Structure formats: C-alpha cells, structure tokens
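[SOLVED] Predicted holo structure with pyridoxal-5'-phosphate

Edit: marking solved, answer below. Original request kept for reference. I posted the sequence and ligand SMILES and asked for the 3D complex as structure tokens.
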Amino acid sequence: MTERDAFLQDIENELRQIRAASLWKNERVIASAQGARVRVRGGGDSDGDGGGDSDGDGEREVLNLCANNYLGLAADAELIRAAAAALEDHGLGMASVRFICGTSDLHRALEEALAEFLGGEDAVLYPSCFDANGGLFEPLLSEQDAVISDALNHASIIDGIRLCKARRFRYANRDLDALESCLREARDGGARRIIVATDGVFSMDGTFAPLAEMRVLADRFGAWLMVDDCHATGFVGARGAGTPSLAGVRVELLTGTLGKALGGAAGGYVVAASPVADLLRQRSRPYLFSNALPPAVVAAALAAVSRVAAADDLRRRLDDNAALWRDLLSRAGFSLLEGGHPIVPVMLMDAGKATALAAALWERGVYVTAFSFPVVPRGEARIRTQLSAALDRDDLIFAAEQFRDAAGSLGIFS
Ligand SMILES: Cc1ncc(COP(=O)(O)O)c(C=O)c1O
C-alpha cells in the first residue's frame, strides 16, 4: 500500500472507531423552513411504519423540539422581506473582506443597532460567533496576561483561548471559590491583564452563569468579564438584552450569534468599548481574513434586532411554553435539570436509554436529540429539549404524551 492509500485507510479506521463508540452524528435532511414543524426528507423511519404525516414523497412532518429558534423568527415574514429587499438592492454578497471593499451601509447599521441594543459602544460583526470567540482573545492578550475560563464553556471559547499566548486557567462550572482561586493565582503571578470568560447560559444544561457574583470577583481582582450570550440574547433579561441585563451587571466583552434567537441565519458579533472594537477590526484574524456577511443576512438581522427589542409577546410565549413543558414532563415522571431556561434537559443518565427514547419519539413524530459522553459527563446522558415561541400549547401536550408513551413502551421508568 502506498503512503497515499494508507492516509485514506487511516481515516476510514478512524470513522469505524467513531461508529463503534456510538458517537456517529447522523444529519437529518430538512426540506422546509425551520419552525415548530419541519418536513424531513427520507424520514429516517427505521421500522418503516411511518408515523407523523407522510406525503408519500419520502418526506414527513415532525414536531421540532431541538432548534435554537427560541423566538420562532427563523421563518418570520418581516425578516424574510427585509432579506429579499437587501438581495435586490445589494446583491448576493460583498466578494470581499470588510477592510478591502466589504463594508456596506447595512453592516455598519447592524453593528450600531447591536451596540445600542446590548448596551455597548460598538459592535464588530463576524462570519459566526465561533469566529467571534475564536478571534477575540489573541488581539487582547499576550504572554504577560491571563485568561480564566469556565470548564463548560463552548468549544469556540476554548479554541479562541488556545490561539492566544496568555496563561490559561480553568475553573469548575460556575464554581465561584474556584474562580476566586484562579483570579488570585493570576494576580499573584504578575498577570498584566486578566479576562474571565464564561457562557451566559450553558447550553447542555440550560443553567445561568452567576454573573452578579462574578462581576464582584472580577472587580476585586481588576479583571474584565467576557460573556458569550448565544443562548440568551433576544429572550433573556429586559427587552431580551441577555444575561448581563438579567443580572444587572455590565461586562467588558459580550459575544453572540445571529444564528439562534435573532433570526437563525448566520453571523456573530463582539460588543465592546470603541477602542476594543477598533483593535479587533485591525487585528482579529477571522474578521480580517474572511468574507463579509451577505447583505441579505445582515438586513434580516437588522430587522430581527428591532423586532426583538419590542418582542415581549414572543418572550412571554417562550417563557409560558418552557414552564408548561417542564410541568408536563415532571408530572409524567421525567427527571429534569431545574431552571427556567427554554433549554430543558430530560435526564436519562444512560446513553442507551437516551438514544432509544429519541429514536422512539422520532417514530412518533417528535424530533429531539440525545446527548451522551463525551458531549455531557459520563452517566449524565440526556435528551436536550429546546422550546420555541413558535410552538403552541397543543404541540407541547402532544409531545409530552409521546414522551410518556414512548418511555412506557421502552420500560424507561421500570
Ligand atoms: C454558547 C455558544 N457559543 C458559540 C456558538 C457558535 O455560534 P455560531 O453558530 O454563530 O458560530 C454556539 C453555537 O452553537 C454556542 O452555543
């Protein structure tokens, strides 16, 4: 075998190992807009008995309880109209990075609107929040500095920290004593600048970072606070301004996504003081060296920001849905992680049970995803359900009945 062939064979072996460890991620193919119900191609109907509505073309409709479409804006008519108008006026895209000839009036308008909405001086758009987090730390921190990160932070924060030269500290999830020890060690070690980095909401658990207490600690040690609010912006806090607003604190660095509650298309941003935003524009590599966001996406996000700031109706509906869903599932005997966030993890504790339940629910027309080790700690397998303002009361009653019946037929509670 040539070295060239051996390369490919190694990859095939690695794929076999992923499958053997039950870690293979299957992608279902959705042939409709994102919403409370989606039409899924092929159906993935393993026992062949249908379930859900089938139109005979190999597509079926399922109730979707696993999207980040928190406010139900992914197929909102007003946002789509804004995107369509920008497509007409501004074309498909800028064919340029921002600093060459990729900055349109829409990009600047969205940056200003995000800064205003989220209480910062300026905002910097990125192709994704993964890129925003990936490009944030390296321009701000050097060998003389320190970065302190929650152990459950999103992969993009972890990768962004890896790309900077600062001394790294990690503290147990939401553990304020451990954070304080890290801060003390960083200061005693002579760190010049310190950033404490956290998710505002931890996406596997739906739990909130203790931002008020973290602010006090950060101030005591002269540190900056960085919050990734992907699972909060638009629906947590007054006017949907996110976890800092809920906790009543200011943060120096706020990152977020346009790919969840703010319409669900794509894009990310950093909100910060003007000098920080200016430095990111000069030095942050994913900003400097990647194509500008398409104008249609930017225009839709701009419409989303103004819709969301006034969307108490949608936030109320989302909160009511989350409360009803928690109540229905608890009464059906499921064990949930406590909290008030629309991420509602249904704890099965066993990877086999979680996978079997998700498959049985799929057969019954309910689309959910099972998570097990290494995505969540060993022995804490779960189905992560996510609520949306697009769902209604009947949807949730139907889904809860399916959860109860599927679990009963699988003997999950026995
Ligand atoms: C906490 C968190 N941060 C960052 C990201 C990345 O966001 P984007 O999809 O905009 O790259 C995600 C998306 O899954 C996320 O959940």
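OP edit: The chain has two domains: 28-64+312-410, 77-309. Thanks to everyone who chimed in.
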